[in-house]
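Support request, priority: normal
Reporter: lab tech (M.K.)
Component: structure prediction queue

Hi team, I submitted a job for APC family permease from Xanthobacter autotrophicus yesterday, and the status page still shows it as pending. I've pasted the exact input below so you can check whether something in the sequence is tripping the parser. The sequence length should be 560 residues. Please let me know if I need to resubmit or if it's stuck on your end.
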Amino acid sequence: MSIAATNEAVAAPEAGTLQRKISWTGAFWIASGVPALVLFSIGAIGATVGAPAWFVWILSIIFGFIQAFSYAEIAGLFPHKSGGASVYGAIAWVRYGKLLAPFSVWCNWLAWSPVLSIGSGLAAGYVLSILFPADAAINTWQLTLVDLGWLKTGLALRLNATFFLGAALLLVAFAIQHRGISQTARVQVILGVVALLPLVLIGLVPLITGDVLAAHLGPFAPLAKDEAGKVIAGSWDMAGITLMAGGLFIAAWSTYGFETAVCYTREFKDPKTDTFKAILYSGLLCIFVFTIVPISFQGVLGLGQLVTPAVVDASGTVTTPAVYDGILSADIYSGMGVASAMADMIKGGPIVHHVIVVMLILALMLAIITSMAGSSRTLYQASVDGWLPKYLSHVNENGAPTKAMWTDLGFNLILLMMSDYVFILAISNVCYILFNFLNLNAAWMHRIDRPNWDRPFKAPTWLIGMGTVLAFVNLFLLGMGADIWGAGTLVTGLVVSAAIIPVFLFRHYVTDKGRFPAAMMEDMHLKAETGAGTRAGLLPYFALALGAVVVIVARMLAVY
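Reply from support: The job had stalled in the queue. We restarted it manually and it finished. Here are the results:
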């Protein structure tokens, strides 16, 4: 590493900068909100994929764990930086194209930031469900502001009780983090213990009591319905494979998320040892939760059957959708009924039911704080490095990137008005898969371009290779499975990800007059230094071209 970077990494904290106040355990507890992400899409995946849904979660977390070793290595290269894997990967790509680096960082932020709106919306829905009947006026009224049906049927921006309560929860999360990373870590320890307990109980209790039925976990065939709408076992034809790809695509948004543990490298007391420990133990926690919870959830509820057939008018238009029970029920798909269904799995009566729902609300708050901490630091470091507007690099007296946090909050208040959280999640995941592709490839690019840099953790070469293979597997899942969640998902996600181009061009060429900040220039080896150069040659461009081909071919193979 460069001398300047090394010196900065060990310097005493200064006012106006992020401060070294936590160990790997602090990052572990901050990242402990990731297991709660299972609540976001467990119903949607089950209702889309069918009986193999439990296997989707297990396979996806295995992918995520393998990829984590690549992220742990590149994070160790830059102990003086915050913001996570996208920031460390951006330095690999910037010498091969200025637009590639901010694209990586932008996609990572767009992937993580919507956790705030989706999580607060679900938490608000859970609160309303235990306080008021489903048909109460407070649960049914809404004011539609903008009809977005041209983007997806039924999509709109609206105001309702969920929005206002969700906004209040976001402000609580903001207030907690305003006092800095060490205070956030302390709160997360308390929330983590309380909020992870119900997930552990939900995963283990049904297995112990024998309520998990093997019949509910099979047959191992994709979901299909006959002409009458009854649930039947599908076939492993291209349509079935497309459903599986769609499930693995959306699960990645949750199961890969523990890579956020490396967002806090700049705030570790000892980044050389803390970085790897943080992501390793966060990954092991996620393997446990993302394995037992989906198995128990599906094993108890079952996939579900047709309760009331759809009502169709003379023109063939569905006027009243079909009603299903089990995982196929509408409130499980949307996520709003997941907490209540999970609470019923414990079989403790009304009081225990409400206690479990409250604890799951805390689990969502845990996820919200995890996301705000990580995504705001991505904005902060992207600003410091010259990708995003300068105002985002402001830090308060407690070392919290408050202007980045306010930006996160404002963006998510808009998303919170969306009427379809699953669609938001899917578009967000298009960006997340693109981020993962760029940064898994960044691991081998750093190896080639920076062979002599100190690596506190150096992953086995075969794991770097597997991470690279999974980068292309993820793109295949993106191309084949994204539009399972709405016809415009893939295109919308690509358009949103490209929105960074005008933002970066203004910052770089108007604000900075075409020059990067001095510290960033050193990180990129733009100053004279032994080993400077782009040793990877054309390989990064070949990887990009191959990635584009994979997405196109996968999209052509998909059958909806």
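Residues 24-132+158-309+321-557 form a domain with the Amino acid/polyamine transporter I fold (CATH 1.20.1740.10). Strands lie at 142-147, 156-160, 223-225, 231-233, 306-308, 311-312, 318-320, 323-324. Let us know if anything else looks off. Ticket resolved.
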